[in-house]
Amino acid sequence: MADIKTFYLPDLGEGLPDATVVEWHVKVGDSIKLDAPLCSMETAKAVVDVPSPYTGKVTKLHGAPGDIIETGAALAEFEPDPNAKQRAESESTGHHHGPKKTEAAPAPAPAPAPAPAAAGGDREDEGTVVGAMVSGSHVHVEQAASIGGVKAVPAVRALAKKLKVDLARVRPSGADGVVTMKDVKDAAANGSAALGATPARAVPASAGRHLAPELPQGEPSRTTTSLAGKPVRTAPPSQSASGQPEQLKGVRRNMARVMADAHAQVVPTTLVDDADLHAWIGKQDITGRLIRAIVFACKTVPALNAWFDGKNLTRTLHPHVDIGIAVDTDDGLFVPALRNADMLDGAGIRGAIKRLRSQVEDRSIPASELSGYTISLSNFGMFAGRYATPVVVPPTVAIIGAGKLSHDVVAVIGGIEVHRRMPLSLTFDHRAATGGEAARFLKAMLDDLSLPN
Question: Is this entry keyworded Protease (predicted)?
Answer without folding.
Answer: no
